[in-house]
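Deviation from plan, reported transparently: thymidine-5'-diphosphate complex.
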Amino acid sequence: MFVTFEGCEGVGKSTQLAMLKEYLKNSGQEAVYLREPGSTEISEKIRGIILDPANTDMTAETEALLYAAARAQLVRQVIRPALDAGKTVICDRYIDSSVAYQGYARGLGEDFVKKINSYAMENAMPDVTIFIDLRPSASFRSVSRNDRLEREALSFHDKVYEGFVAQTATSNGRIVSIKPEKEKIFTHNKIIAALREKGAIR
Ligand code: TYD
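Because the crystal trials were delayed, the predicted structure below was used instead.
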């Protein structure tokens, strides 16, 4: 199974991924853990270009194509072979981030982003996606502002959020919206329950 995690900046996605990893390890379940953009040598180099705050001149189209390029490498080098070998793959961000950030927030549109990503991904669509559903206004102040995307205004991140919500509605159940709880262990429990129900984990 191919599982992805999505959400706005600072919503606790990394913490939840770490908790999931720990849970799976403790229950003897193996998985391949990845992050996007990145997780191959070439994709990490592309990530460096995308997130470099010095690249203020980067056009939206260039940005979208670079995310797709990093993905094309990761799919062929790691994701496809792992899925073919029957492994569980868990990826921090994937196609839905491209649609939300480049399609909605940058204004390139869902169609363009999906089109370039159909080349990048071939058929490697996630089976289940956990969307940590928290408005950026609720988490924005805790975000670092280190990289180029984090430096965008709150209005940009609001559009990202709308992009995730819209995709959840049309995903035919693939994207599961998880509203974070005050206690992160409760959020973790909700994620475990959702992934079990989908048959992605035991
Ligand atoms: P990262 O530091 O991994 O962010 P986070 O910890 O919030 O996941 O940086 C990834 C950034 O790239 C993040 O701002 C989201 C953005 N992004 C896109 O704009 N499009 C994409 O397709 C992907 C995968 C990420």
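Strands lie at 2-7, 32-35, 89-92, 128-132, 175-178. We consider this an acceptable substitute for the interim report.
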